[in-house]
Write a structure and sequence with these properties.
Helix content: 25-40%
Mean pLDDT: 80
Oligomer: single chain
Order of helices and strands: EHHEEEEEEHEEHEHEEEEHEEEHHHHH
Largest sheet: 9 strands, mixed
CATH class of the largest domain: Alpha Beta
Number of strands: 17
Structural class: alpha+beta
Length: 329
């Protein structure tokens, strides 16, 4: 394992949050290889060095990844002085100290990832990766096409311009509308603030997907471990991956192959340059030398065809030949 900042190692070992771990280091309660550390920025490795807190040696925790269907009223924090329910209280099948990936406000519900892998969480929440997150929003009023265009182009808020990647109308009514919104950036209460700015207050907000990972099969308050395939997908997920066209299915590939075969086996009869149909007899006359090149007959034929030089019409008998006299017969 590579060297990491001491407060990060303590947090990954399940001691506390990074901020609390910084206070523990400043108080002189952390030792590295029998030396007390009181300054921040010191790096260490739990695999090769002896790191102790209050005399107890720390061991790295096993990384875990969970998906939770967060109910309404649960706050996304591990420390709440008011004593409100937390996501960690709903994941009872593990003793590892987990933290939520990103945030859903207390009045929102839906998909929430839980882990103790900081790099994994940063990859899914940092704006530069553009990971798509899909929400289902029920709002007041009738949403118009102009409102959707403004959401996609961007709405100026206090912290800058906020825009949605995609917006689709699921249901539209006079007093209530349902929208499917996809974001690639994470601002605080972004959807609620944007829709309130447009005159459509949010009545219910549910996060349904992160990338292609959804909460189907999970009831409110239930959690499960992510599969290895889902973990690998989320670790390599980037925003542009979702916009790339998916590879064609087996049925589509078979249809394309049949179409190509039909085109390759179609015999096309191309007309001659002169515009007249050439028979087999004329072809034999033209190919006098057997080389495939047109002979004199072909040139004479092409000269008198449409598009070539016009023939001189005979309006009188040939010179030197007298007309036959039929009176003697």
């Amino acid at each position: 394992m590579a060297l990491e900042r001491l407060q990060k190692l303590l947090a990954r070992a399940g001691v506390a949050s990074r901020r609390v771990c910084e206070e523990l280091i400043a108080d002189g309660r952390v030792m590295v290889d029998s030396h007390v550390v009181t300054t921040l920025g010191v790096k260490a490795d739990l695999q090769t060095q002896d790191v102790r807190l209050d005399g107890r040696r720390l061991r790295p925790e096993r990384l875990e990844y969970w998906i939770l269907n967060k109910p309404k009223g649960v706050v996304c924090t591990n420390y709440d002085p008011a004593g409100r329910p937390r996501p960690i209280d709903l994941v009872r099948a593990t003793k590892v100290r987990l933290f939520p990936v990103g945030r859903l406000d207390a009045t929102s519900k839906g998909l929430l990832l839980m882990t103790n892998d900081g790099e994994f969480a940063n990859r899914l929440t940092h704006p530069r990766y553009g990971v798509p997150k899909t929400y289902l929003a029920t709002v007041g009023g009738r949403v118009t096409a102009a409102d959707i265009r403004r959401m996609v182009r961007g709405v100026h808020l206090a912290g800058g311009r906020a825009q949605a990647a995609e917006v689709h109308v699921v249901k539209r009514g006079r007093s209530r509308s349902t929208l499917r919104i996809t974001l690639r950036e994470g601002r605080n209460r972004q959807i609620r603030r944007v829709l309130a700015r447009l005159g459509h207050p949010v009545r219910e907000l549910v996060r349904t997907r992160i990338g292609r990972i959804g909460i189907r099969g999970l009831r409110a308050g239930e959690a499960r471990r992510l599969t290895d395939k889902e973990i690998q997908y989320l670790k390599t997920l980037r925003g542009e991956d979702e916009t790339k066209p998916r590879p064609p299915t087996k049925k589509t590939r078979a249809t394309i192959a049949r179409a190509k075969a039909a085109v390759n086996h179609t015999v096309r009869k191309e007309p001659r340059a002169g515009g007249r149909k050439q028979t087999k007899r004329s072809q034999r006359k033209d190919d006098t030398d057997g080389t495939g090149k047109a002979g004199k007959g072909h040139r004479r034929h092409a000269a008198g065809s449409r598009g070539g030089p016009a023939r001189r019409r005979r309006s009188s008998p040939r010179r030197g030949r007298r007309p036959r006299d039929h009176s003697a017969q």
